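Morning, I've got a small favour to ask if you have a moment. It would help a lot if you went through both lines with me. Thanks so much in advance, here it is.

***
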Amino acid sequence: MKYSRLTKEQFEELEKEFINFLATQSITADEWKNLKENKPELAEIELDVFSDLIWEGALSAAKYLEHISPKQMHLFSLNDDNMHVIAVTLKNDQDLTTTEGYNWLRENLMDDHVEFLQAKKDYSDDKNLDKFKLIEQGAVITKGDLFKFFDKLIN
């Protein structure tokens, strides 16, 4: 398995897609039930393959990631050849993960306690795995509104 298995909730949300996936494997509903009961190790493999397919599609489509922690915000634009990251760091006692801290940042963007850095990083041989590792560390896929805002602000 290349990525991680989808959660039970994710499988439930993707039930139709999973049924279609089983159909492409020529597995009927009855055969799936039988597989789960009598050959759980093969059922596990099917769940893993489906999970990887879903992750591969989501990661290929992802254009932006965000990772927000109490003192830092990392905003990624996922380009074809590299990742452009904008890092916003707070040098005071504010917490970006709270409404109060986030509002403080919005009102004090040019304060001396706010530091901006940006960089570009080339992907390894596996672009989607690079993206997945960021997600494992807490990043989430977004539409890029924060990245675009800060990109305009500092460039």
Remarks:
- The longest strand covers residues 82-90.
- The two ends are 40 Å apart (CA to CA).
